[in-house]
Specification:
The protein has 368 residues and is α/β, with parallel strands linked by helices. It is built from 13 helices and 17 strands. Strands 2-17-8-1-7-5-6 form a 7-stranded mixed β-sheet, sandwiched between helices. The protein has a 4-stranded antiparallel β-sheet with strand order 11-12-14-13. The protein has a two-stranded antiparallel sheet with strand order 3-4.
């Protein structure tokens, strides 16, 4: 178990590298030189994010083109989950700076919130102006100010959601409705120089959560992701370079290793693989006695702060932090009654299968 390498070998450093190439400045450390040298200079960059496709999943028989394009293994942020990673992309900042620290967050004005859906854990919609959730200016606004056009190629049914309003403020939103749309929109938009195109591909994450990595649906999802990547790569114009990565990896979990936590007197949020706990007694600041028997490691708040990254912290960070994090042992999920116990695949923690993600590079055919 190790924290993410946020000083040059992580997702946020990829964003910093691309922003610096396009504008001359960035908000986080750039990629380490041995990684950056794999990325050619370009007038337009295409960044494709394959939700849930960790580096250790590229050995799947359907992932041949993806594996061939992989130049390095980098890290997702902590927790290794979609909301944190997408917020790091949208801002070019670490979690401590942008303030989104999990899938379920304890927001002082709202209580525990499902950050993907903007509902209570019970599914009740929460009314909030999410457009101002992330710091200003975000990545898209900084790019526009520098004369670069940011375009996000995203599922059409996400366009008006609270999370989309939070993540893509300032960017052009290009709705797509099927796999052919994803390819066509990305390739056509890359035809103009002076752009950063961010394309989101959801298939692998959905299949891994529901059926696990041994399922037929998962194999089909990997095949689709592989086809999307290679088809776009074959259509790249001479001035464009495509980078691929993921927001996190995935691991499968057995039913008898899914354990339910007691919640009396505590506020539980975060992820089943990175359980945030609030309500710890000041007189006894360690792990609550009710949680001590579970197969997990207690991480105090001060250590969590370091894992979330450096830089000026978000003004609400301290109020959003838990008293500590319960990190389940390998192979275990720790859930509450309002977490989905039906899922086979999960992520969020620091196991290599969750944390380590690929760095893929494709350049136009014939370009050195």
């Amino acid at each position: 178990m190790r924290p993410p390498r946020l000083h040059g070998r992580s997702l946020v450093n990829v964003i910093a590298e691309l922003e610096h190439r396009l504008t001359g400045s960035c908000q986080a450390p750039r990629l380490d030189l041995d990684l950056a040298e794999h990325i050619p200079d370009a007038a337009t960059y295409v960044l494709v994010l394959f939700d849930g496709l960790g580096a250790h999943q590229l050995n799947h028989e359907q992932a041949g083109d993806l594996a061939a394009a992989n130049v390095a293994t980098i890290d997702a942020p902590f927790p290794s989950t979609t909301t944190v990673s997408l917020s790091s992309i949208a801002t070019g900042m670490t979690a401590s700076q942008h303030g989104i620290i999990g899938y379920l967050m304890n927001l002082p004005d709202h209580g525990v919130v499902n950050m993907l859906k903007w509902t209570t854990p019970g599914g009740v919609p929460i009314e909030a102006d999410t457009s101002q959730l992330l710091p200003t200016p975000n990545l898209w606004e900084r790019l526009k100010a520098a004369g670069i056009e940011p375009i996000c190629v995203q599922p059409g049914n996400f366009e008006r959601t609270p999370l989309t309003r939070a993540l893509y403020r300032g960017a052009r939103y290009e709705s797509v409705w099927n796999d052919a749309d994803i390819v066509d929109a990305t390739a056509q938009l890359a035809s103009e120089p002076g752009r950063l195109i961010f394309t989101y591909v959801p298939h692998v994450d959905v299949a891994a959560h529901v059926g696990g990595q041994k399922s037929d649906d998962y194999g089909r999802a990997v095949r689709t992701a592989n086809s999307i990547w290679q088809t776009i790569a074959n259509r790249l114009p001479e001035h464009a370079v495509m980078i691929g990565t993921a927001d996190h990896g995935h691991l499968d979990y057995a039913e008898d290793h899914k354990l339910e936590l007691p919640t009396e007197g505590l506020t539980i949020f975060g992820e089943p693989r990175a359980v945030y706990v609030k309500g710890v007694s000041e007189e006894s600041p360690g792990i609550p006695s009710s949680l001590a028997p579970f197969p997990a490691t207690w991480i105090p708040k001060d250590q969590l702060r370091a894992w979330l990254g450096n830089g000026p912290p978000h003004p609400e960070l301290e109020r959003r932090l838990p008293d500590g994090v319960l990190l389940p042992d390998p192979g275990y999920l720790l859930l509450t009654s309002y977490m989905d116990n039906r899922l086979i695949g999960m992520h969020g923690g620091l196991e290599p299968g969750e944390l380590e993600i690929p760095l893929l590079v494709a350049r136009p055919t014939g370009r050195p």
